[in-house]
Amino acid sequence: MYLKNPFRREKKMGMTFRPAYTSQKEKKPLPRFLKIVIILFLSILILGSLGYVGTAYVENRDQIKASSKKLDGEAMKLHVKARNAFVIDANTGQILGQKNPDQVIGIASQSKMLTAYAVLQAIDDGDYQWDTPVKFTKSSDWSDKDAAMYAHLDVKEGETLTVKELFTAMFTTSANDASLALADFAKKKSESQQEFLERWAKKLGLKDTVWYNAAGQVNDDAFSYKVKSAKKTAENKATPRDLAMLAYQIVKDYPDIKDFYKKRGLVYTPNGEESNLKIKLTEGGKFEQEIASQLNNPKNLTVEGLKTGSTPETGGALTGLIKDQSGHEFITVVSGAGRYTDSKERYQATLDAVSEVLDHYQNQSIDAGQSIPGQKTTKNAWAKGGQVQLVTKEKRTYWIKKSETGKLSFARVKRYNSQSLSDDDTVLSVPANIKASYLTGVSENERNLPLTNKEMVEQLDEGGYRSNWLRFYQS
Fold first, then answer.
1. What is the pLDDT of residues 215-249, one digit of tens each?
2. Which Pfam families does the record cross-reference, listed alphabetically (predicted)?
């Protein structure tokens, strides 16, 4: 049986006519070889453009090239009569001389530098002012202690001194009660003095340190500030390297600290009452009156501070700021220089350490406003003409062994693309071609040579920048 498909369209009978003429020409496919040629041409065009832009990108990045030849500025081994010694450039942190710099030692009153930095920072932050009064508590009242054993002020519980009076007493006479009262005032209410000191040591990157009290007293001699969980003989400890780092931070951030050492006498007035005025001889005053004339100082070095400290175990110690006749400043640390009761030997060892460094090193300085040796101009696509001239923003001094005969050079800046075209901005810093070691925590900007534009340069708009940027191949 035949069944009709219900979905099949019925064919209509008729004829289909195609016109004899049409305006649309039939498209003929391109020959295969022509397609290949076009594809290759477009590929080359695209790859060439990408390559050009890519090369321009690479060529237009900041290009700073250091020399492979470096002069020797590594630290020397010191031979001074002290168990520990350490000397650095106070401005750059370059380590110049060392003797057992990583031995952990008792630091006694050198501990007071940490409280000093914390207080200076708080004043900068506006937490309190120099004239803010601080009340002595029962714990910080050491007026009845033996002054020959425990340096202190004549201030009693309930009396007040200003922050500046306490700071000056702590830093210039090493008054233990001033340091303890100031630390109590500066710390958070929720923390102990020990926690306060540990917090600031961590903040400053002092890794090999141990802290108990702000005065630097042996734990058993700290009285109300004794840490009960610690041994009686426990004491604040650090390495000479840590002490140098602490002193470096103070001098770098607060260079006026040296002015405190110039004070020959401490004047303070409990409760601000002029009728109750008191005077004490400072460490600087004692040095000038009793010690300076006894020292062998052929290079006429100047002692500018910072802090003495000693214990029976560690002997005489001093973290110092020393200046030579050319104005170069050095931070020094000596420990184990004579008996702890002797004042002369720690100063003599300090002067000897700096003298030894000066005998072995020559300094090469670059003053502010100087061109980088061997370089006249530098490319910068943002500048009109695509060129700028860089000069030094600040003075830098580098120390090199006297055995070196070459001239110090610096990394060459071939190009830098920055919109900072003012002569007030530090736009780059370049390293010296020198083999040297620096304190941990000293940034590249602090030890490198900072650069700025010689004069204000006209900055281009985006169009001008792109035009210079694409002319990367031009000199």
1. 999 999 999 999 999 999 999 999 999 999 999 99
2. Peptidase_S11
Whether 451 and 468 have beta carbons less than 8 Å apart is answered as no
Contact 121, 255 (CB under 8 A): no
Q: Are 109 and 317 in contact (CB under 8 A)?
A: no
- Please, which residues have CB within 8 angstroms of residue 68's CB and are 6 or more apart in sequence? none
Q: What is the pTM of this model?
A: 0.85
Tokens encoding 242: 């840590």
198-207 CB contacts, 8 Å cutoff, 24+ apart: 200/114, 200/117, 200/118, 201/114, 204/114, 204/117, 204/245, 204/246, 204/249, 204/441, 205/245, 205/440, 205/441, 206/114, 206/238, 206/242, 206/245, 206/246, 207/242
Q: Coil, helix or strand for 202?
A: helix
Going along the chain from its start, the domains and CATH numbers come out as 63-73+364-470 (no CATH), 78-362 (3.40.710.10)
Tokens (6 digits) for 250? 């103070």
Interhelix angle 112-124/193-203, rounded to 10 degrees, is 70
Report the alpha-carbon distance of residue 454 to residue 443 in Å, rounded.
24
Cβ atoms 334, 98 nearer than 8 A: no
Q: Which residues contact 259 (CB under 8 A, 6 or more apart)?
A: none
Query: Measuring CA to CA, how many Å separate 85 from each of 59, 95, 325, 337?
Result: 48, 11, 22, 9
14-46 pLDDT, tens digit per residue, is: 555 555 555 555 666 767 777 777 777 777 777
| Cα 111 to Cα 131: distance, rounded to the nearest angstrom | 24
Q: Say whether 399 sits in a helix, a strand or coil.
A: strand
Per DSSP bridges, beta strands 71-72 and 434-435 are parallel
Beta bridge partners of 160: 135
Distance, in Å, from the CA atom of 174 to the CA atom of 176, rounded to the nearest integer, reads: 6
Q: Are 387 and 423 in contact (CB under 8 A)?
A: no
